TrEMBL record:
Protein name (Swiss-Prot/TrEMBL): Signal recognition particle subunit SRP72
GO cellular component: signal recognition particle, endoplasmic reticulum targeting
Alphabetized GO MF terms: 7S RNA binding; ribosome binding
Annotated GO biological process: SRP-dependent cotranslational protein targeting to membrane
SUPFAM superfamilies documented for this protein: TPR-like
Organism of provenance: Hydatigena taeniaeformis (Feline tapeworm)
Keywords of this entry: Coiled coil
Amino acid sequence: LRSFPNDAYAQHCKVVALIRQDRFHDCIDFLQKHQIDDYHLERAYCEYRLNRLVEALKTISSCTVVTQGLIELRAQIYYRLEEFERAIEEYEQLLKSCKDDYQDERQANLIAAKAALSCFLGKDVALNYSPALFETAFNAACYYIGKKDYTKALKFLNEAESTVVFHRIRPFVELCTEAFEDDTDATEEQINEEVAPISSLLLGKLASDDQVYFVMVQKGFVLQQQQKTDIAFEIYHTILRQRSGDPSLMVIVSNNLICINKDQNVFDTRKRIKASSIDDLHHKLFQAQRSSILTNQALFYFNTNQLDACDAKLKAVLNEDSNNVRATMLSAVSFFKSKQPAAGVRLLENFAKSPAFEEVDKEGRLAAILLLVHLQLMAISGVSLGSTPTAPLRAGKLTTEVADALSERILAKLLPQDIAMLPLVASLRVALLLGAGTEETNCVSDVALKRAKGIVSETLEFWSKRSSDVRFTLVFSHVL
């Protein structure tokens, strides 16, 4: 390059050499210095490795001829940007158009995108699984975890674990077995006895393999979801003792232990919070994972009355994910605990009226609105927030006007119709109206009674038009 600085072949060799040495900044600087615009794949790959994902996507888009390599990279960028459906489209296109030796890897990546779509966005898409690699089985397990089918998830985790053991140990066992080929007198049993200690040693080495750790963590999570927390606890501590080399894995283990500890074992939880710092792992965790970790830490601080620390964690979550229901609800309750009830109510009301609320799933919407009603009743009664806020209303504090406002302005207006007509919500609306003013008058007002009857009629009419819910309608009618 000193003699022929514009030699294209020499330039390309240097670009490849810099990439092989992980000198991505130097590679981009070299391309810019020599004003080389032809190497779209190399430049985009460097930007991808430097976590400049949007820039990498722009570099690929600027290329007039999109090669197979660019499509592969674009699919991975979409995955990292959490645009999982686009990643799925790219991998499906590659699987149809390519006929090389990398189809198993593409299939594993496709299943990873489907698993992420299932776990983090709750969307259902066909798996189309065929066994191939460790990653294929492991990603299939993650897919079923997202669907909360923990029995199938365990099946695929066991398959992934067996794949690791088989592929890592088999070459050594075969080599040892070949040593007995000239010994015609050696029986199969004798050969197995000689090989067994070597297999055991290799299995012991595999216990510290990161792939095995990932399987163990997912098994721990599945058992945790199945309420087998004692076994999950032991699995997590085994991983901590053996110390995986992957920092993101250790953060996830620490977070899961925080969930098991809850507000018990405060000393251990403080250690886990320190170990689950995500400051340097922004690009190794998905947004849902980061939000979950920070919200769990906030919940611990809330339960131990460290409200400033709690609010700081929640602020970090909401800055990145404004429609996070758990963080918003916990923020509202934190306001109540710090004796700012009006701020807590206002926060939830604004959230329920914001565009972000439209993106929340039905379960999250219902939880947020029910909490809003609960906090409104607490504010009306002047009840302070204790550790178990289960009885927010003092007798005689609820007027017919307030009950009607809670029923119509919040429960009926802020919830979609199919949720507002659920028996849970309809019963609550009726209970609010029938419970208004009973302490002073000892009877239900005509206005409240009329409103309550109207809610019952609306609900019955709504469900009677849905043939699949006829049984519910009859039961609801009988109860009322």
